[in-house]
Each structure stands twice: as structure tokens, then as C-alpha cells.
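Entry 14. Structure prediction run on the chain below.
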Amino acid sequence: MTPLEQAVAILKKGKYRDAQQPFGIGSTSYSFDAVLTTDKSLDLVILQDTTVGSADRMRRELLAFGRSLDVIGSRRTLTLVLIGQRLDPELLDGLSQVCRVLSVGPSPTDKQLREWLAVLLPLELPTATDLRGDWSSEVCSRLSPDVARVATVYFNVTEQGESGVSLELRRRIDRALAGALS
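Output returned:
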């Protein structure tokens, strides 16, 4: 299975479905390697394999597609997932003016691919039965030791309410600034 096919499969497990291709807006039609959408939101995800085809042609096609969506007043959020070789930073900057751009390496592992696409997938929360006993210690057990130490301090001051958390944050900022200024 190619990385593009893997990405499509991961997104489909996350409740995405194929959009009709070629994607027509008015009298113009656009064709991409894959276009996915979901019923729960207005997300439109375009997946492109950067190892084949011209990067410049892809850029022109995507810019025209974005302009077409603007002209018809679409409220869809557009995300471009680039799979394969890294593109020129100037090209990526131009594309990011039109849509959110996620770059995926040329041969990612399944775990890496899931992590890169996590922003598009539904959040998987533990069930109440997964969190047994003291919730704060359960959360800290899932964090790195350094982060858990800081989290524990904040968990303890939450009993004092918003003012306790604000005071602790102020103390930490003052301590950091005192060290930086001395």
C-alpha cells in the first residue's frame, strides 16, 4: 500500500469519505489524487502525492480551486496533505495562503502517518472506566516526568479556583523572568 493509500485509509477510518472526482465548481473541474470530506463538518481534505507530477501544476490547480471556492462563497475549510518529497519552502508558503498544509514524509510508518494526520481525526478520549481512581494521577501517569511535575502543581492549586491557578502562573512567570534578567 502506498503512503497516499495509507493516508486515505486512516482518514476513512476517522469518518471521512471520498468526494466526487473530478471536483466541479461551476463550469470548471478539478482533479486531485484524492479528495475527502466528512458529514460532521465542512472540512475538505485534498491529498497529493508529490513524488509524481509537477509541483508547479499542482500549485496552479490548488490556487485556482481555492479561488473558485471563494467566488462561490464556500464555507469549507480546505486542507492539503502533501505526501512524498518535501516541496520548496516558497511554494509551501504560497499554498498556505490558500489552505492549511500538512506535509508527510516520503515513506512514513503507520504510526508516524497517524501522528501527522491526527489534527484531522476525531479526538480519542478515554472512557470513564479507563480512568480509575484519582483522575489527576491517571493523567500524570500518561505524561513525561517533567510535564507531570508541573501538571501536579497546577492540579493542586485548582482546588483554590481560578485565582489559585493565576497566582501559580504569575509565580512561574516571575521566577522565569528573574532568572533571565539576572
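The chain is about 45% helix and 15% strand.
Filed with the rest of this week's runs.
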